[in-house]
């Protein structure tokens, strides 16, 4: 990798998401954040790579581990932090929290906290786009655990049958909460299962954001050419616990040795090493200032009033 405008753009997105999530992790023990948090630290490159090849009109669907996707697609940082604080200034009016980020303006569907439930909703968006003749690609991010939900198989079949403009992106970190893939499936080849439905599937096994971007670019181009749904299995690793800001290697279900190869290939550090050091520090300072401003905004925003209990209960 070289220090180019493309790598700088990708690096800035990676660093921004990493620093934001590290700040969220630091704030969380204070109890200012009013919802559980599922951090993407270690997995950011997938969202950055995919969203970098999308157009503004394209739409993404994310699950409860959706910070990276929300931010990479252009979701407002102030709205995200205020949402975590449970403030009306949040992107979901402070009623959804970390697991329910949303931004219609940026093309981020409302995130779902129930495993796999956003997959058929993404198919609905894709079907609507096709019926309307809109030039839209719908991307659905989900973990390997979601591939075990019935709606995943049903949606694959429906999307293939109707050649929907839907890009399935499986962030395979190897665990459904604490259960490793090898204890859940006799055949670990997720792509083979997907291909059985007639959906082309590609697997990446690296944290290199440029490799994932190339795979995403090819898939999105195929969708825009009318070839129907595509599938990307991006093998990755979750550095922290399933839910919360801490490490959990002492819990007994995985060892830190398992994480070390991924930490050694950290795309943030790898890209920083090829960038101009002065530019990296300037960029880091700019992002830190943006985060400070967003946290201050969330902390100073007014809290809910009693009448807010009755808002958004029924459609206006």
Task: Please provide a written account of the structure.
This protein has 316 residues and is α/β, with parallel strands linked by helices. The protein has a single domain, classed as Thiamin diphosphate (ThDP)-binding fold, Pyr/PP domains (Rossmann fold, 3-Layer(aba) Sandwich), CATH 3.40.50. The chain contains eleven helices and seven strands. Helix 1 packs across helix 10, helix 2 packs across helix 8 and helix 4 packs across helix 11. The termini are far apart. The relative contact order is 0.16. The model has no long low-confidence stretch (mean pLDDT 96).
Q: What is the top-level CATH class?
A: Alpha Beta
Strand content: 5-15%
What value does the average pLDDT take? Answer: 96
Looking across the biggest beta sheet, what order are the strands in? 1-2-3-7-6
Structural shape: globular
- Which bin fits the share of residues in helices? 40-55%
Question: What's the helix and strand layout?
Answer:
Blueprint: H1 5-27, H2 44-51, E1 59-61, H3 67-72, H4 77-84, H5 118-132, E2 138-143, H6 150-162, E3 166-172, E4 175-176, E5 179-180, H7 190-195, E6 201-204, H8 209-224, E7 230-235, H9 256-264, H10 267-274, H11 277-300
Parallel strand pairs: 1-2, 2-3, 3-7, 6-7
Antiparallel strand pairs: 4-5
Task: Give descriptors for this structure.
316 residues, Rossmann fold, five-stranded parallel beta sheet, 9% strand, globular
What is this entry, summarized?
Helix content is 43%, strand content 9%. By secondary structure, it is an alpha/beta fold. It has a single domain (5-310), classed as 3-Layer(aba) Sandwich (Rossmann fold), CATH 3.40.50.
């Amino acid at each position: 990798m070289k220090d180019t405008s493309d790598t700088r753009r990708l690096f800035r997105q990676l660093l921004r998401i990493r620093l934001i999530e590290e700040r969220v992790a630091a704030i969380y023990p204070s109890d200012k954040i009013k919802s559980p948090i599922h951090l993407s630290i270690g997995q950011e490159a997938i969202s950055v790579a995919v969203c970098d090849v999308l157009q503004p009109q394209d739409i993404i669907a994310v699950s409860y581990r959706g910070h990276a996707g929300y931010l990479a697609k252009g979701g407002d940082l102030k709205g995200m932090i205020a949402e975590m604080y449970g403030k009306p200034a949040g992107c979901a009016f402070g009623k959804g929290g970390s697991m329910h980020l949303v931004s219609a303006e940026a093309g981020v569907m409302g995130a779902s906290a129930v495993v796999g439930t956003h997959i058929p909703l993404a198919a609905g968006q894709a079907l609507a786009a096709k019926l309307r003749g809109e030039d839209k690609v719908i991307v659905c991010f989900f973990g390997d655990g979601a591939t075990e939900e019935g709606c995943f198989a049903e949606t694959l079949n429906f999307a293939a049958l109707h050649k929907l403009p839907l890009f399935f992106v499986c962030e395979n970190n190897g665990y459904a909460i604490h259960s490793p893939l090898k204890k859940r499936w006799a055949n670990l080849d997720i792509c083979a299962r997907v291909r059985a439905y007639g959906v082309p599937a590609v697997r990446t096994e690296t944290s290199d954001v440029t490799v994932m971007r190339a795979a995403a670019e090819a898939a999105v181009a195929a969708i825009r050419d009318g070839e129907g749904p595509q599938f990307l299995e991006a093998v990755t690793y979750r550095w922290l616990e399933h839910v919360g800001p801490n490490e959990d290697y002492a819990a007994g279900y995985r060892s830190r040795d398992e994480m070390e190869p991924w930490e050694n290939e950290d795309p943030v550090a790898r890209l920083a090493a090829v960038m101009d050091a002065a530019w990296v520090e300037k960029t880091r300072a700019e992002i830190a200032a943006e985060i400070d401003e967003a946290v201050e905004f969330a902390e100073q925003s007014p809290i809910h009033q009693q009448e807010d209990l009755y808002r958004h209960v029924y459609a206006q």
